[in-house]
Amino acid sequence: MDVPRAGREEPVAPLPAAAVGIGAGLSAAALALAGAIGPPYLDVSSLNPFVGAFAVTSFAALFAVPFAANRRIVASRPEQAESWERALVAWGAVALVLLALSALVFIPGDSSPADSLIDAAALIVLVESGLVLLVLGAWVLSS
Question: Which segments within 51-137 are labelled E, that is strand?
Answer without folding.
Answer: none
